[in-house]
Amino acid sequence: QEVVSEESEEENNGVNLMEFSDEILLHILSYVPCTDLVLNVRRTCRKLATLCLDKSLTHTVLLQKDYKVNKDKVKQLMRDIGKEIYQLNMAGCYWLPSSTIDHVTRCKNLVKLNLSGCHVTSLRLSKMLSTLQHLRSLAIDVNPGFDASQLSSECKATLSRVSELKQTLYTPSYGVVPCCTSLEKLLLYFEILDRSREGFMLSGQLMVGESNVPHYQNLRIFYARLAPGYVNQEVVRLYLAVLSDRTPENLHAFLISAPGSFAETGATKNLLDSMARNVRLDALQLPKAWINGSGLLQHLKFNNPFYFSFSRCTLSGGHLIQRVINGGKDLKSLTSLNLSGCVHCLAPESLFRKAEDDIDSSILESLVVSCCNLKHLNLSAAHHHSSESIGNHLCQLLSRLKHLLSLALPVCSITDVGASVEKPPTTPNLVPQTFGRKVRIGIQTYPRNLGDQTNQKIESSVFWALMGSLRFLETLEIIGSSFSSAMPRNEPAIRNSLPPCVRAQSVGDSEVAAISQLTYLQSLTLAQLPNILTGSGLVNIGLQCQHLRTLSLANLGMMGKVVYMSALMDMLKHCKCLRDLRLEQPYFCAGAQFFQALSHCSSLQRLCIVSRSGTLQSDAVMSFMASCLEVIMCHMFMGESLTVCKNLQQSIVRSFQAERPALNVVIFPLLHEDLTEVIRDVPMRHLDEITLFKSRVAEEPPNLWW
Fold first, then answer.
1. Which of 53, 258, 304, 485 could staple 226 via S-S, CB 3.0–4.6 A?
2. pTM for this structure?
3. pLDDT tens, 657-700?
């Protein structure tokens, strides 16, 4: 009785949530999904009924990752607060039927609308836009069958007032661009495949009758991102043709992201020459063929640049300093820099240099001093080897960038110079890094915390010091310079991978343990770390990095066995905030023990496993899906037979689709010839964010779209 009375007294003396001020309650409610606020929370009491309809909570409605929302909830939401919504983001809501879009017409005051990833026909788009007279920002997909001639005059009147347009193209088309006569920001994503499902080659020519006069006179930002394929290149050239005739005077950001070879033509050369004469840029990204061997950068003028991307260019460090950084002047405004795959960017010249030669630390130092406010830096996909000069290691110089929020580095760049020439430690239980005869070994043990390791050696490393100096880093990528994913975009799965860089051979558990210093880390990618022996550092990350939401691990340690499995399972037990997990490792066994550990990740939403010769246990997968109620994406590309994969996929869909409307399941043999056909049906949100491996640091300018 005494215990009960003490507990009741504590409850009486406790703080009642409703006693907080309205300002504090509104701040708390801002973290609750809008559908829950309007459809559930506001029905609990009168005070919350009033607060949940406050303008600060209904002005902007974000449904883009509300995987529990369905058509009925959207209908009720629009009916209750439609007139109060000024910004609506439904990007990536692929599971909602197209008829859901009809309810957006209730939002008469909409100013910004994002429907990327939603299937919208020409007629539906016309009907909806005809009622949104205040719209100024629009994001849509243009799918096969889109017909601009079906757009009504009222719809075109709305489009004529739109100043920001994001358009994802799945078919050769201008979409609604010709109707947008007041464009200031244009974002184009080209996702057109070269072949139809029937195997016919597609053409980059536009539909007969389409207008070919986009209106760019007021354009300030032009951004185009191309998926692999020649059709995408043909279509983007049609969009650029008008720009080459007359370059907008107010253009201050010009960005084209194109994989592979995208040759320069006479029209694009005229465009670049016109830009050099008439505009001053704040953001620049060009295909590598447009920059390599040209003096373009010497003639372009910059105002207060905030973003540069020279990804995969042969730009030397000398040119980078002289032509871009301008001797250290006027680059304090630069916040994002992408030098991924720019193999000579830290060397004075590239003519007689090998990619594996040591970097020139003075170039990196000039970069750090000139761009001291950098928040996002990508140096991946290159060999950046530091010399033995004391105090000039790449990690030591980067530690001066105190504002960094995201960083991507090659594995060979983080090793201590002395350690890189030492022979990696070996133990009698290790298997050679080959695909030869399998060796039966016992269960590996690993130190559970840093106290069990050689602390003095670890904490004196340059990488440990770098991690200690970047306490507020949110995104970190450590990727082997020769790593390539087994599952590329439009080609069959890669069966062989290149060996890691010699300098990277000593990078392993101690370097991974150093990452645990990043208390605010939210996203971590580790790929091709050859000296992972037990994975002990992963446990430290799980314990210390409690904000971790995204984890991607690929080809760690030896390739013939998953040596870090025990440590990974221990790590997962501590990752309560983890939402996205991607694992790529040959011979990965997705069995009962693994899924039991993964079940501790109560916030997990998306899982992707890519494993050549990998195995899975169907019963374990089903039990995992039943226990982790938030999981809405399960992609597994393994070594199992097509029959096993199909049966498991059908079982998951049949058991969980009804209660999880956004559920997307793809289980398929990795080396099957039809893999590319299966991938093309994956929603772009999942494909781009997790299923396909790529470096995402400084991939595009920050805050490019909301």
1. 258
2. 0.92
3. 999 999 999 999 999 999 989 999 999 999 999 999 999 999 99
**DSSP secondary structure code for residue 149 in this structure:** G
Q: Give pLDDT, residue 497.
A: 74
Q: What are phi and psi of 128, to 5 degrees?
A: -70, -50
Q: How far apart are CA 430 and CA 560, in angstroms?
A: 10
List pLDDT tens digits, range 558-599. 888 899 999 999 999 999 999 999 999 999 999 999 999 999
* Cα 177 to Cα 417: distance, rounded to the nearest angstrom: 53
pLDDT-derived band of residue 432, with 50, 70 and 90 as boundaries?
A: very low
Q: Which residue has the tokens 């601009």?
A: 148
Cα–Cα distance for residue pair 276/264, rounded to 1 Å = 16
Note whether 255 and 309 are within 8 A (CB). Answer: yes
Determine the average pLDDT of the residues in 345-361: 83
Structurally, what CATH architecture does the domain formed by 462-488+497-690 represent?
Alpha-Beta Horseshoe (3.80)
* Joined tokens for residue 452: 């069990």
Q: How far apart are CA 205 and CA 198, in angstroms?
A: 19
Specify the residue for token string 């007689």: 352
Q: What does residue 300 show for φ and ψ, rounded to 5 degrees?
A: -65, 145
Written as six digits, the tokens of 124 are 């539906």
Q: How far apart are CA 447 and CA 256, in angstroms?
A: 47
The amino acid at 465: A
- 4-62 pLDDT per residue, tens: 455 455 455 667 888 899 999 999 999 999 999 999 999 999 999 999 999 999 999 99
pLDDT for the residue numbered 435: 43
Q: Determine contact, residues 586/434, Cβ cutoff 8 Å.
A: no
CA distance 377 to 374: 7
In this predicted structure, what is the pLDDT of residue 433? Answer: 44
- As a whole number of angstroms, the distance between CA 637 and CA 586 comes to 11
C-alpha 296/C-alpha 324 separation (Å) is 11
Question: Domain spans of the chain?
Answer: 20-138, 300-387, 462-488+497-690
